[in-house]
Each structure stands twice: as C-alpha cells, then as structure tokens.
Design a protein that fits this description.
This protein has 4 helices and 16 strands. By secondary structure, it is mostly beta strands.
Length: about 300
C-alpha cells in the first residue's frame, strides 16, 4: 500500500496549560431515563480509577464516563471550549507541571451549546500508577499538535481531533482514489444524537439508539473506531446524505433520552471517498500502550 502523504511538517506543536477536572454533579440537569428513573451517577470529570482505553464502554454504572483522567482548560469556565480543548488531538502527550509524562489524549466529551451546563472535557489515558498520584485540579500541559493536519492525496477528506501519531496508527488503506477505514460499528444517521450542530473540534457525537445497531453498541470499547453514515462533520456535525464521519469512542453511555456512547470525530468526507467497513477497528490497546510507555 502506498503510504499516506500529509502536511505534518508544517504543523505547530504548542504546549497548552490546563488542569485535572474535578468530579461534578449537575443536579439541575438530572433527567429521567427511558424507564422514567432519575439517574445521578458518577462520570463527569475527575479521575476514573481503574478505567482504561480498551475496556468495554458499558461496563460501569456511570453517566458519560470518561476513562482515565478528565482534563479541562485552566480558566475556570468548564462549560466553554478553550484552547486546551480546541487544540488537543487524540494521541497528544500530556505531562504534569514537573515535566513528567502522565498520559495520552484519548477522547473528548461535551458538545452541547457553549456556556450550557455540560463541561467540555478532554479524556487522558493514564496508567494506574499515575492515577494513584494524580489529583483533581493538578496543573497539566498538553503537547498539542494536529490542528491543520490534512491528507495531500485526499483533499475531500477533512481531519479533526487527530494527531499525526494516531493517523499513522489508524486502520486505513487507500485504493482507487478512496480511503478505507476499519471500524467496529456503523451507525445510521437516525441514531446520531447529542453533539449534532456543534463544532467538529468540540466534544463528541453520541449514539442514541443501540437498537439501530442490533446490539453491537453494547460491545463497543473505549478507543474503538465508529462510523456515522450520512453525517457531515467538515465544520459542524449535521445530517447530509452521501457523507460519512468516522471517530473514536471517547466516553461511555449517557442514560437520558438523546444521549449514549460518545464518539469523537476524526475523519469526514464523501462516502464514496471515505469507506467504512467492519473489521479490526480497535485503537484502545494502542492508546494504553503509548500511555504506559511514558513511565519507562
């Protein structure tokens, strides 16, 4: 296979400050699930001890659970997407204030209206050893790189939230002018929910109805690649027949109607140029391996 050509040599790497987000309870935003039960569960912010990329996303009784550490911009406005959120890309290295590597950016959570209650978080895959010494509100630095990344031979495909390092690791093949990606699930447009209408660099797009996938959502893992049919994420995320968006599972289920497992979009383009097929689309083990290598 011919190697993908990109413009990574032109990209700027920027060190962006943030903090480990505290765990939050949004009592004013409590909603009943499909059975009319009120759910008030952990999962928004903080450090999810023992939860890792590669784990099954629906394993825990939680709400929008982000594996590892949730981080955010340091200006104290969690509901707004600032530089850390907008510049972070999956695969970027994260370090603490002393310069020690602590983990790898593994996803984003958020995507509701700016200024609304939901925080705009970045998920970081961390080892258990790091989790034991990391504290909420600790200062961190993300070594951001990936904003502006593009494929030179596939100009009709837009990249977002994607580091050059992860681009090299994705299950991509190219032939006859098209780019094919192995994914673990393909989601029909009617199952795309929370996150529609938002900037493609903010948060995620949630899978609202697992019945559309014949039960396969229950088997998704953090770090799995997922495709949305007929969803355009070039600038914002919306329904557009003939388009495809492919991303990575970044948080677990949300129980309120209209919410579900969240997918941070990485690639979007015309469906005849960006082809999703069910295959070996799991990237969780790779993200976890990269994170653990920081301790060597």
């Amino acid at each position: 296979m011919t190697a993908l050509r990109d413009n990574r040599a032109e990209l700027v790497s920027a060190a962006v400050a943030g903090r480990v987000a505290p765990a939050r309870i949004h009592a004013e935003a409590m909603a009943s699930d499909d059975d009319g039960r009120i759910r008030l569960l952990p999962g928004t912010g903080g450090i999810a001890l023992g939860v890792h990329a590669g784990d099954r996303a629906a394993n825990w009784l939680a709400d929008h659970l982000v594996p590892g550490a949730s981080i955010e911009d340091a200006d104290g406005t969690p509901a707004a997407a600032g530089p850390l959120h907008l510049l972070s890309c999956i695969g970027n290295r994260v370090r603490d204030a002393a310069g020690r590597g602590i983990g790898i950016v593994a996803g984003k959570r958020g995507g509701l209206a700016p200024g609304f209650w939901a925080p705009q978080l970045v998920g970081v895959e961390i080892s258990d050893a790091v989790a034991a010494r990391l504290n909420p509100e600790d200062r961190i630095i993300v070594e951001t790189v990936g904003r502006g990344l593009k494929l030179l031979d596939h100009p009709e495909i837009t990249l977002a939230n994607l580091s050059p390092r992860l681009l090299d690791a994705l299950p991509l093949t190219q032939a006859n002018g098209a780019l094919a990606c192995a994914v673990c699930a393909i989601v029909p447009p009617e199952a795309a929910g929370a996150g529609l209408g938002q900037d493609s660099w903010v948060g995620d797009l949630e899978i609202t109805d697992e019945r559309c996938l014949a039960g396969s959502v229950a088997d998704l893992h953090f770090g799995d690649m997922v495709a949305f049919a007929d969803i355009d994420s070039n600038v914002s995320r919306f329904y557009r027949p003939g388009m495809a968006s492919i991303g990575i599972v970044s948080h677990g289920p949300g129980h309120a109607p209209g919410h579900g497992i969240g997918v941070t979009i990485l690639l979007t383009g015309p469906a005849e140029r960006l082809i999703a097929s069910i295959g070996q689309g799991g990237m969780g083990a790779t993200l976890r391996e990269w994170s653990e290598s920081l301790l060597e």
